[in-house]
């Protein structure tokens, strides 16, 4: 799944109030069960703030391991 597809799915779920921030991986899978859990786990880690690979930073991760979108949103969403 492309970055834009997973990210767009998360943004839409938050905008529609189906997914509340901060959210956990399990929260995301409950709301979007068609997404692969492993793929989502890797995606969230890969795109968190201050990630080691310097990929696009799309999420903040709090001390509880939950995520929030970094604003402004990316990819014209």
Can you describe this structure in just a few lines?
With 77 residues, the protein is mainly alpha-helical. The protein contains three helices and two strands.
Helix/strand layout:
Elements: H1 3-15, H2 25-31, H3 37-46, E1 59-61, E2 67-69
Antiparallel strand pairs: 1-2
**Widest β-sheet, arrangement of strands:** 1-2
Strand content: 5-15%
Stretches where pLDDT falls below 50 for ≥5 residues? none
Care to count the β-strands?
2
Q: Helix content range of the residues, please?
A: 25-40%
* Structural class label: mainly alpha
The largest sheet, given as strand count, sense and whether it forms a barrel, is: 2 strands, antiparallel
Task: Let me know the average pLDDT.
Answer: 92
H/E element order: HHHEE
Through-space gap between termini? 18 Å
Please tell me what the overall shape is: globular
What Rg is obtained from the alpha carbons, in whole angstroms? Answer: 11 Å
- Summed up, the helix count is 3
């Amino acid at each position: 799944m492309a970055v834009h597809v997973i990210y767009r799915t998360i943004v839409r779920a938050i905008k529609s109030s189906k997914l509340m921030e901060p959210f956990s991986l399990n929260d995301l899978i409950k709301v979007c069960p068609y997404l692969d859990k492993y793929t989502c786990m890797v995606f969230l880690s890969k795109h968190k703030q201050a990630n080691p690979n310097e990929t696009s930073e799309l999420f903040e991760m709090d001390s509880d391991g939950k995520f929030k979108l970094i604003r402004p949103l990316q990819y014209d969403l």
